[in-house]
Specification:
Length: 629
């Protein structure tokens, strides 16, 4: 009772100390949560602050994956909560989302700052998916400024994406192949690009939470075909983004479509798509003036090639006004970034102080909790080893009793033939002296039979010693052999004994009997079954050894040894059937079980052979052995 109460207390404290609904350990966990976010909306009012933090992150990540703008106020709240809860992964995810958001708006200084912070945390925790996602965006930032750094990020995405066990990481590697990235040592062929596409589509179809990447896949393969100057394919995949994805169509999709039409010299369609892109970006991304400027570059060219010089000049004027806006905003943007930097540093210092105070309080709680856990663990260990020692002592006592019983049975089995041989010696002298040849011949056959039984008993003992009875796997591997020869040899050996007893021994075999088993174990098992049949069959009875194919489709042979002997009593029959259904392990002496039956069980178990027993008192017994051919 005392131990039960201690164990219950230990489990309760452990549960109370570590209760949480789900642990989030990597970037990948948030991808799944964001995909299933609608199922968790009700938990946004959860009392668990850690759960609320994860759901807030998943909500903003879902918006981003759905090509929607994130809520910067909520992102600020996420950073505060992650800092208070000391969630390094939460901070990394927040920095990544902000870095990706500012990348879309082409605000390079802010996006680079956030992405490097996120990448540093992901690297420390060896989160390959987080590292790859940050490195891919950082590579785009550093491409013009620092070629060596850009190459470093490219190599990182290649190495991790190519060898990772996670499909989302492999997808990032396939993107490089599909886009015919200039840093690749050898440029992929169009067939290799399509192969990478096929592998990526398989990943998307297998994992529903990756559906959001389908549009990005089609955009990257457009880049590859643009480098290959295969403009038909560029247009094909630009249209697939519009028609074969479930994403909300945005300005970037129309921009890609306009470029595809422009490369195909379909200027009217290019103008329509690019005008739509310019219209949408002002609504969807009003701060993305650099992206709008790029759209105007292509739109101006489309109008010019279409022969509409007036519209081309108007777009050129809009382009010039954007250039002026960008240049005049640079100073205010720099000042804003400076204020953000110092504001962030001030907030970070405050959060560090609060975190340190919380750590001191938590360390005191952990110390008390840890001491209690250690005490309970020591009690549990003592209890565990005490119970284990009791079980071991019981097993040892049981083994000793089984050993003594086993020795008694062996001694009994050996004493009977030895005593008979002593008596036979006196009888032989008398018969020889009297010249009674027929009786002498009968006694000699009886001696031969006792010799064989003693030899079989000793051989069984020897084989049992080598049989690894207490080990589940056999040291001898099953091999295919011709069982026909073994059965014929055993039959020829037993035939004289059967005839001397007045028992009919018959053999019915096919032309060939190839089975998969240990040959020596097979011969010992058959010999023991035949010896038992001969022992319990009265004169005038019949023993049949029969082999046949059980099922031509399953390729199994059945070997049956049946007799018309005494039969097996019901309790002993039930015990034997339980043994060969592998429900219990046989023991010598239980229900009259001999060593021979132990060896038969051992052979069948280690060679995957099924044995079925049927018996009826006064009518006989049948053992059927089903072997693989």
């Amino acid at each position: 009772m005392k131990y039960s109460l201690l164990l219950f207390l230990f489990l309760y404290i452990s549960e109370a100390g570590y209760t949480q609904n789900k642990s989030y350990n990597s970037f990948r966990d948030y991808l799944i949560l964001s995909h299933n976010f609608d199922n968790y909306k009700t938990q946004l009012k959860s009392n668990y602050k850690s759960e609320l933090l994860h759901l807030l992150i998943a909500n903003q990540l879902k918006k981003q994956n759905d090509y929607d703008t994130v809520n910067l106020k909520k992102m600020s709240l996420i950073i505060q909560q992650a800092s208070k809860q000391k969630s390094q992964l939460g901070l990394a995810m927040a920095y990544y989302i902000l870095g990706r958001e500012y990348t879309i708006d082409q605000d390079d200084s802010l996006s680079y700052s956030y992405l490097t912070k996120a990448e540093k945390i992901f690297t420390a925790s060896n989160d390959t998916t987080g590292i790859i996602h940050c490195s891919k965006l950082l590579r785009a930032h550093t491409r013009r400024a620092d070629q060596n750094l850009s190459k470093f990020y490219f190599d990182r995405v290649m190495a991790l994406g190519q060898h990772s066990k996670y499909p989302i990481d492999n997808y990032m590697y396939y993107l490089l192949v599909m886009a015919c990235d200039p840093y690749l040592e050898s440029q992929p062929t169009e067939a290799e690009m399509e192969q990478a596409l096929s592998k990526t589509i398989k990943i998307i179809n297998k994992y529903p939470h990756f559906e959001y990447i389908r549009a990005n896949v089609y955009k990257n393969i457009q880049e590859g075909y643009r480098r290959k100057k295969n403009h038909e394919k560029v247009l094909e995949y630009a249209l697939k983004v519009m028609t074969e994805t479930n994403k909300k169509i945005d300005f970037m999709d129309y921009q890609y479509l306009g470029l595809a039409y422009l490369s195909m010299k379909k200027y009217d369609m290019a103008i329509a798509a690019l005008e739509e892109a310019a219209k949408r970006i002002k609504i969807e991304r009003p701060k993305s003036v650099i992206r709008l400027k790029n759209i105007y570059i292509f739109l101006k060219k489309a109008y010019y090639e279409a022969g509409n010089l007036k519209a081309s000049i108007q777009i050129d004027e809009k382009y010039d006004s954007l250039v002026y806006v960008i240049s005049t905003n640079d100073r205010s943007v720099a000042l804003f970034h400076l204020r953000e930097k110092y504001s962030f540093a001030d907030k970070e210092a405050t959060l560090k102080r609060l975190t340190l105070e919380k750590e001191i309080a938590d360390s005191q709680k952990r110390l008390l909790f840890g001491g209690l856990l250690v005490t309970l663990a020591m009690v549990g260990i003592v209890l565990f080893f005490s119970i284990k020692l009791q079980k071991t002592n019981k097993q040892l006592l049981s083994l000793q009793q089984a050993r003594d019983k086993f020795y008694t049975i062996i001694a009994h089995d050996l004493r009977l033939p030895m005593k008979s041989l002593n008596d036979m010696g006196i009888l032989l002298q008398y018969l020889i002296k009297e010249g009674k040849i027929e009786e002498l011949d009968r006694v000699i056959k009886q001696i031969e039979k006792m010799r064989y039984q003693s030899s079989l008993l000793l051989n069984n003992l020897f084989e049992w010693g080598k049989s690894d009875y207490f080990v589940n796997q056999s040291a001898t591997k099953p091999l295919v052999f011709e069982a026909l020869i073994s059965l014929q040899t055993i039959y020829n050996y037993y035939l004289p004994f059967a005839e001397s007893k007045g028992v009919s021994l018959e053999l019915s075999l096919p032309s060939s009997l190839l089975i998969l088993a240990d040959q020596k174990g097979f011969e010992i098992a058959i010999s023991n079954l035949l010896d038992n049949a001969l022992k319990h069959t009265s004169p005038g009875g019949k023993i049949l050894i029969k082999a046949y194919r059980s099922d031509y489709k399953s390729r199994h042979y059945s070997i049956v040894i049946s007799d018309t002997g005494d039969g097996i009593i019901p309790t002993q029959l039930s015990y034997l059937q339980q043994i060969f259904l592998w429900k219990i392990k046989p023991e010598v002496g239980v229900q009259g079980l001999g060593l021979g039956m132990i060896l038969i069980y051992n052979f069948a178990r280690k060679n995957n052979i099924n044995i079925y027993i049927m018996s009826e008192i006064g009518k006989g017994t049948s053992f059927k052995m089903v072997c693989k051919s």
